[in-house]
């Protein structure tokens, strides 16, 4: 099972194994546009104006919002990821784009 790469929008994020994902990352560049995508030869990636999840072949990337910039810094990276994902889910819910079904089991 492949792991999910977590990066934050507008921040410079270092990908150690970016060469393994290069072809798929170029497909992501086509989605977010060339102006909003930067990948350096040392594996530093920056994605602007896009929050979401991207998956192609063996590449899974979640791009989270930069909600803590210059204000609050959580104690660990895990808590920042959790809070960022919570924020994304709330935005999807408020906008009506988060669909779900309630299943009722008949006894």
Q: What is the total domain count?
A: 1
Number of helices: 2
Largest sheet: 3 strands, mixed
Strand content: 15-25%
Secondary structural class = alpha+beta
- The radius of gyration is 16 Å
Low-confidence stretches: none
N/C terminus separation: 36 Å
The coarse silhouette is: globular
Q: Order of strands side by side in the largest beta sheet?
A: 1-6-5
Bin the helical content. Answer: 25-40%
**Using DSSP, what is the number of strands?**
6
- N to C succession of SSEs: EEHEEEEH
Average of pLDDT:
81
Overview features:
3-stranded mixed beta sheet; 107 residues; 28% helix; 22% strand; alpha+beta; single chain
Describe this structure in words.
This protein is an alpha+beta fold. The chain has one domain. The chain contains two helices and six strands. The protein has helices at residues 22-32, 77-95, and strands at residues 5-8, 13-14, 37-39, 44-47, 52-56, 59-64. 10% of the residues are buried.
Concise structural overview:
The protein has helices at 22-32, 77-95; strands at residues 5-8, 13-14, 37-39, 44-47, 52-56, 59-64.
Which helices and strands, and how do they pair?
Blueprint: E1 5-8, E2 13-14, H1 22-32, E3 37-39, E4 44-47, E5 52-56, E6 59-64, H2 77-95
Parallel strand pairs: 1-6
Antiparallel strand pairs: 2-4, 3-4, 5-6
């Amino acid at each position: 099972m492949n792991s999910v790469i977590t990066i934050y929008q507008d921040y410079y994020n270092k990908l150690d194994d970016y060469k393994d994902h290069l072809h798929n990352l170029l497909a992501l560049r086509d989605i977010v546009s060339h102006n909003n995508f930067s990948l350096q030869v040392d594996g530093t990636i920056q994605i602007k104006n896009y929050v979401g999840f991207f998956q192609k072949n063996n590449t899974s990337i979640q791009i989270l919002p930069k909600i803590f910039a210059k204000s609050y810094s959580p104690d660990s990276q895990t808590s920042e990821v959790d809070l960022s994902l919570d924020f994304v889910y709330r935005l999807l819910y408020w906008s009506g784009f988060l669909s779900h079904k309630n299943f009722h089991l008949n006894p």
